[in-house]
Amino acid sequence: MAATAAALARLGAAFLLLAAQVACEYGMVHVTSEAGGARGRDYCILYNPQWAHLPHDLSKAPLLQLRDWTASMLCSPSDLPAGGFSNQIPLVARGNCTFYEKVRLAQGSGARALLIVSREKLVPPGGNKTQYDEIAIPVALLSHRDALDLFKRSGQAARAALYAPGEPALDYNTVAIFLMAVGTVAVGGYWAGSRDVKRRYLKHKRDEGPEKQEDEAVDVTPVMIGVFVVMCCSMLVLLYYFYDHLVYVVIGIFCLASSTGLYSCLAPFVRRLPCGSCRLPDNSLPYLHKRPQARMLLLALACVAVSVVWGVFRNEDQWAWVLQDALGVAFCLYMLKTIRLPTFKACTLLLLVLFAYDVFFVFVTPFLTKSGHSVMVEVATGPSDSATREKLPMVLKVPRLSSSPLALCDRPFSLLGFGDILVPGLLVAYCHRFDIQVQSSRVYFVACTVAYGIGLLVTFVALALMQRGQPALLYLVPCTLTTSCAVALWRRELAAFWTGSGFAKDLPQSPWAPAGANGLQSPKGCPSPPPPGQEVPGPALQDAQPPEPAVPQDTEAAAEAPACEPTSPACSTPGPAAQDQGRPDASA
Known about the structure:
The protein is of the alpha/beta class and about 600 residues long. About 50% of the residues lie in helices and about 10% in strands. The radius of gyration is 32 Å and the shape is elongated. The protein starts with a helix and ends with a helix. The model is unreliable at about 5-20, about 205-215 and about 500-588 (pLDDT under 50).
């Protein structure tokens, strides 16, 4: 037993030592030209602080001559120049020898630091404790692209200083991402629930207005969930292996879908404008033969123009991210309005399956890939060896707001994928629809939205502590599902909440039901006649959003509802209460 414990202790010590050997940090090399003129420029480097520490302040870093020795790999003494590298920072090529062999030769020849130019992905220059104790100069890796730009701007007579400025654990741009994500989920969930209620109300009213022509919502089935997840997995793997070819396909799909989403979000406001309601003349042109209104046609052209402008200038990091975020929010709102989960059972299935999908492709795939990197993170941020340098647009992105030049290094933008908004947002939309049906003062909707915000905060905290990409659904799914279940248990409505049906039988009396002549309310399903002399309210209330029509789901529910007397005035002239209650004979 003691031998086993000792072996485990040695194994743990070896693991800690190995982890320490690959410790790395991002730093900067500040390069200026000896001829003066243009202001200096910073480039990102990856260094191991166990070789030697770098100062945090640029003013405390010595400015030394930068020597281009990239024609040599500095693996043997014969690779050294005749005069050595006295008080210089040599740039050498990355070769087959170890980092220790390179830096030992550079230090012996008088170099004050060593920069290794790498054409491959930057990796931390590791060693062992004995080598760390022997070396007293910093060693860092610089990308080949930055090395070419460096000498192009500064010439061969350049001076450089190595430093490592501090970087805040959590950037201020996370506040902007948090507000956009929570706002999109809240607005989209509220809009989806209210639109579903209005759609059913207009269906009972046999309305033929513009709202009648809107696209119907799509109910998600378990089969659709399975197909969707398989498609997501296939697309992610294909993007990982054929990124440079498929990235343009994704960009095209985003342009088309985002312009459609932007039109859908702005159409209700444009329809309220007092001008532009005239229709196009009769024609046989595609998509125009239905004679759309002039204002709606102009809106469609404007949405396409915005999408095209983003597509052309998508790589302008200074401002293109604003258009991308606006189009992304519109796309998410459109999807939340169009896709509908009919039951909490379907919500749970979708969220748990995508929870496993997210965790697998972030935490498990590093053990399956040759590079040891996450498939999800590589695809979301763009492979470092990509020839196109394109980025996937299916994310909200906000540039780092901190003043640290380290923003040039590891991911200058903070990202949040659309899936981390849409998947919990579908649950929030379902909660709002259920709130309206059971008249619960939106307690489910508010609780689930707050739970989403808390889960997103936990995601940001985990990101700051671990300093690596996090699967947001790992924190969002438990928060939203647990909160929704807890509210349903507390209200003793879990069975109805799980199935999404059957609660119409126990629906409380609508507060809009008028009282009878004796002050008592009429039986359920039989609205009372209006008082004498009072006009029966009719279609004038059509624009208001009534409560969800509680349409019985089966014939048994219809049998339980008492029927009105044929001679009753309320049966011959239904008022708002009858319309809101959704009688079985009216929905048949």
